[in-house]
Amino acid sequence: MDVESCTELNEFPQMLPPPPGTFVDREELIQHVGDFAVSQGYVVTIKQSKRDRVVVLGCDRGGVYRNRRKPADESSAERTRRRKTGSRLTNCPFEAVGKKDDGLWILTIKNGTHNHEPIKDISEHPSARRFTEREIVLIKEMTEAGLKPRQILKRLRQNNPDLLSTPKHVYNVKAKLRQGNMTVETIRNSLQIMRNFKSLRPQKSAVRNNYLAVTEPSWRQCNPPRVPNLIGGRFVDSQSFVSIDVLNPATQQVISQVPLTTNEEFKAVVFAAKRAFPLWRNTPIATRQRIMFKFQELIHRDIDKLAMNITAEHGKTLKDAYGDVLRGLEEVEHACGLATLQMGEFVSNVSNGIDTYSIREPLGVCAGICPFDFPAMIPLWMFPLAVTCGNTFILKPSEKDPGAAVMLAELAVEAGLPNGVLNIVHGSNEIVNAICDDDDIKAISFVGPNVAGTYVYARASAKGKRIQSNVGAKNHAVVMPDASMDATLNALVAAGFGAAGQKCMALSTVVFVGGLNPWEDKLVEHAKAIKVNAGTEPDTDLGPVISKQVKEQICKLIQTGVDTGANLVLDGRNIVVPEYEHGSFVGPTILSNVTTNMECYKEEVFGPVLLCMQADSIEEAINIINRHKYSNGASIFTTSGVAARKFQTEIEVGQVGINVPISVPLPFSSFTSCKPSFAGDLNFDGKAGIQFYTQVKMVTQQWKDLPGSSGASLLMPSS
Known about the structure:
Helix content: 25-40%
Family: Belongs to the aldehyde dehydrogenase family.
Keywords: NAD, Oxidoreductase
Strand order of the largest sheet: 19-20-21-18-17-22-23
Organism: Lithocarpus litseifolius
Domain Aldehyde dehydrogenase: 235-699
GO molecular function, one term: methylmalonate-semialdehyde dehydrogenase (acylating, NAD) activity
């Protein structure tokens, strides 16, 4: 560049070029350049593109004005004046280049200078007056109906009050439609390109920001729809050809398909989460909390959609599905008040002029692996707390019912969660192994079956990761002879058969102290009153279990109990639900005279099956529970304070209920488990959950004038 042109460039206020970097895909790179350009007062366009290799971006004022008529007697100065008044083009030298290398797009700035003034009001830029695809289609329809440009513009502004176009712009569109230069198909094709590069078009209103919603993304257009990955803030269809069908348990119809995330996509997810972390960790905690407040509001808004999706994919009744979402919502509410819980400690003057204090800092990229039993609550156990602490997060929902997790992620993005802070992958063993092995993932939260949880804990901890793992459960209740009959029976039936017994805190075993005889007939009577039907049907108490395979496993464990001496008091294996004959239903089932050596007692049934045992004393009942390998929770039903106190003191479980069947605490208290039911050092929720997603940094500071010394002291500092 010559000296004269350099002098010309320096006459204008400096407009900074976008910072170079590496991006997951081409569209993200273009969005990064476009958004930064608008913030500096210029607009970029695509100058050259080779779709899969390179894209060259330039200022929209690049190029030169070409006046085809050049009078011979016109001076050079006059031609320059005509060029400047007749065109916005100034031959701006700005140029940014994006190239694909090893699966990622690398941005470099070839020339970061401009030779023009910045745009004072970006809304005045011509690109801000472009019509959306939907608006052009409406213009065509209203033109055919005989409306004039001003009338058309008035109606368009009813839907979009911030529309900047003028009647002249409407007339130009009408002219192109009339001349055949613009067809609806052409509009769709050209605006498809615009949608891919939406950052190149300055936006002013929320309505215009949402013009992408005019057409559904490709993953929703499939039949059945494909569940997308969330990578760097974008919901994208996987390139995988292998997928898992998501079935409605009541009808066995395919609702959607879950593609198995490829290895390249997983690397892109980790890269996006890692790249988002530095900026997110430095975001003020108050800002992160505001996003959670908005997220909470959006969950309330869409709770009906979430509940319907959970019922369709999981099978639980709508009442249970609402409860699933509401318990998860409590986790978001807890995250809204995280600032005070993250406060460190300060000790002044620990030594002469020396203070010490602690800081809680985020870990980095964290991951969560979810089970199928709570499609909304378990994801909300994990990522709201993790991201509000300043981490970025990779969520792997259950492949059996991933819809609610994806819907929650959409709401989190709508609430303002920045790109890359929350990401979603799908799959089974391979993706779990990738999560355990990746060095950039610092912590893993896992909830699921015992075998998988033990494997994840061993593999992830071997890589030096922090991990919390809630696994198998066998929850007991002890019923004392003095317990209130009606209240206890209602509690046992609700906790034992609710959600078809498919929850980690389901009450699966009851130990009757003093004998079962006074209770058995009444218990069967209450169980028979339960209405079994599809979860969407009114007044349904019990829906189907999640799959045919799960039903077969439940029936197998029931049969092993019968074969080894248990009494089948109530059999729900062969229940048939009218209009849902193909559904995976298991009715309420009660086995009595169960002993500790039976397979149905040793293993987690995870179905609507209640096992009844007997003990001669409370001591014997406590010993039965303490000897079991799983120990999430246990409850006692009694009117004796002495018995209750003895039980809570001697029982060896994480959560104790007294006249409460499911002793699950609220989010501000930790979800505690012990023995093989939990692996790790820090539990979910409460202070323990915050400690899990943060690490403590101790700072010791000294602010004083140090006296001069002839040499360094080698003594240990002390007070």
